Amino acid sequence: MGQQAENILEFRNIYKAYPGVQALNNVSFSLRPGEVHALVGENGAGKSTLIKTCSGAIYPDAGTITIAGEDFAWLTPKLSRQKGIAVIYQEFDLVNELSAAENIFLGKAIRKGWIIDRKAMNERSRELFRQLDIRIDPDVLVRDLTVGFQQMVEIAKALSEETKILIMDEPSAPLTNQEIEAMFGVVRRLKESGVAIVYISHRLDEIFQISDRVSVMRDGELLATMDTAGTDREQIVKLMVGRELKETFPEKAAKTGDEDVLLELDHVTGNGLKDISLSIKRGEILGLGGLIGAGRTELAQLLFGVEPIKEGRIVYKGQEIHPKSPEKSIRMGIALVPEDRKQQGVLLHMSIRDNISMPMLKALSKISVIQGRQENDLVERFKSSLRIKTPNIHQIANNLSGGNQQKVVLAKWLANDPEIIIFDEPTRGIDVGAKQEIYGLMDELVKAGKTLIMISSEMEELIGMSDRIVVLCEGRITGELRREEFDQEAILKLASMN
Ligand SMILES: Nc1ncnc2c1ncn2[C@@H]1O[C@H](COP(=O)(O)OP(=O)(O)OP(=O)(O)O)[C@@H](O)[C@H]1O
Ligand SMILES: [Mg+2]
C-alpha cells in the first residue's frame, strides 16, 4: 500500500514496439503528487511514446500503468482524462481562428440546454487565467496571441478541476526566455496546488531550474531516476548519450575582414522590416539576434523570396536580385531551413527519402533522370551523418520522433548544396548530442566555402557559432557586434532597445 499512496502515477515494465524499433523496453517510471519530474533523453529515446501510453493515444504491448492506486493495462483518451491526466503535446493543438475561450472548451462546450453558453465559458476561462496569474482576454483570437500566450492557452486548456497530473512534452521549445520564465511561474503555482508534473525538455538548464527529480531515457530504456539536486549536467548528458560528450563550439578560424561580400541589403524595407542595410561576407556565419517578433524570420523570408521587398535593393554576387519565389531562390543557391518544421518543413505523409531528395529534384529538374541509387546514397549519407534515428529511409516522416523530423528538414536543404543557408533556430528541439553534430556540420559547411545566416534565440549558440552578430528590434537593426565584442548583456540590451 505504501508505494501506492506515495505515487500518483506509476509505469511498471512497459513495452512498446514499432516495426524495426523497440520504442519502450521494460520502462518503469513513477510520479509523486506535487513533484516536477523531468524526463530527458536523445531524440527518439522514447519519451513521447511513454507519455502517449498514459494519455491513451497508444496502447503499450505489455506492462502496467497505475493511477492513484488503480491498475490499467492500457488507457483510452477519455479514461485518461477522467483519471485526471492532461497532456500538452510537442506540437500545438490550437485552432487559430477560434478565441482563447473557444479553444479551451473545444469539444467540451458548456451548454444551457441545447445552446452553447458563451458567457459561462468566458467566465470559466477568465477564472482559469486568473488562477494561473496570466492576463489573456478570453475573446481574443488565438492567431492574434504571441506563441508564449498560445502556450498559456494550451496549459489552461489542459487544466480543469480534476487535473492531477500534467504532462508537458517540450513546452519551452517555441518560447523566448521571458516566456519560459512566465511558464515556470505557472508550473510552480500548479505544483503548489498539488498537481504532479512530467516535464520533457532538451534544455538541461531548465531541468535544474524547475524539477525535483530527473529520469533519463536512452534507446527505449529508462536508465536512471535521480534527485535533481544530487546530480549535474555532466552526469545527465553522459547517461543520455552513453559516452562523454564535450559540449563545445568548433574552433573559429580568424577572419581577416576582407573576404568578398556575397550578399548585400541596401536600405531594404518590407515584410515588417524598416531600412535594413547589411552585408554578408563569403564564408562567414552571421548571427541574427533579437527577441521573438524582432523581425529575424521576416528578414529570412525576404531573402528567400517568400515575401517581396517594398523598397531598397538586394545585391547577390555583385548583381541586384529580386527574390520572387522560394523556387527562384533555391535555383540561385539560397536555402532556408525554417523554424516551424510541421508547417513548412517536413511533409509528414512522405518518406524520409522523398522529403530529403525533393527540393533537390525540383532544383535539378533540367536533368531529366536522377538515378534512384544515387539518391538513396545521398539520403543514407545524411541519415548517418545527422544520426537520423529510423529503421530505414522509406519510413514516413510522421513516424519519426520530433527531433528526428527536425533533422530531416536540415538534410532536405543541405542536399541541395546551396551557397547561402539561412538557419532559423537550427537546434530547437534537438538533443545535446545531435546539437554538437549540427554545430560540427555548420563548421564544415563554412570550411567548404558556404555562407551561413543563423537566427537563434539561444544566447550561447549565437555567441559560440557566429563570426558577427547583428541584432534586430522591432524590424530595425539596433547594433552589430564583432567577435571580440560578443557579450550577452550587450546583445540583450540591443534586442530590447526601442
Ligand atoms: N507511429 C510510429 N511508427 C513507427 N515508429 C515510431 C512511431 N512513433 C514513434 N516511433 C519510433 O519510436 C522511437 C521513440 O520515439 P519518441 O517519439 O518516443 O522519441 P522522443 O524521445 O520523444 O524523441 P524527441 O526528443 O525527438 O521528441 C523512435 O525511434 C521513433 O521513430
Ligand atoms: Mg518527443
Descriptive overview:
This protein has helices spanning about 1-5, 45-55, 75-80, 100-105, 120-130, 145-160, 175-190, 205-210, 235-240, 295-305, 325-330, 340-345, 350-365, 370-385, 400-415, 430-445, 460-465, 490-495, and strands at about 10-20, 20-30, 35-40, 60-65, 70, 85-90, 110, 115, 165-170, 195-200, 215-220, 220-225, 260-270, 275-280, 285-290, 310-315, 320, 335, 420-425, 450-455, 470-475, 475-480. The termini are far apart. Mean pLDDT is about 90; it is low at about 365-370. Helix 13 packs across helix 14 (about 370-385). With about 500 residues, the chain is of the alpha/beta class. The strands form 5 sheets. A 6-stranded mixed sheet has the order 6-9-10-3-11-12, sandwiched between helices. A 6-stranded mixed sheet has the order 18-19-20-15-21-22, sandwiched between helices. It folds into 2 domains: about 1-240, Rossmann fold; about 260-495, P-loop containing nucleotide triphosphate hydrolases (Rossmann fold), CATH 3.40.50.300. Helix 7 (about 175-190) links the parallel strand 9 (about 165-170) and strand 10. The chain is globular, with a radius of gyration of 24 Å. The protein has 18 helices and 22 strands. Bound molecules: adenosine-5'-triphosphate and magnesium ion. Magnesium ion binds near residues 401 and 402.
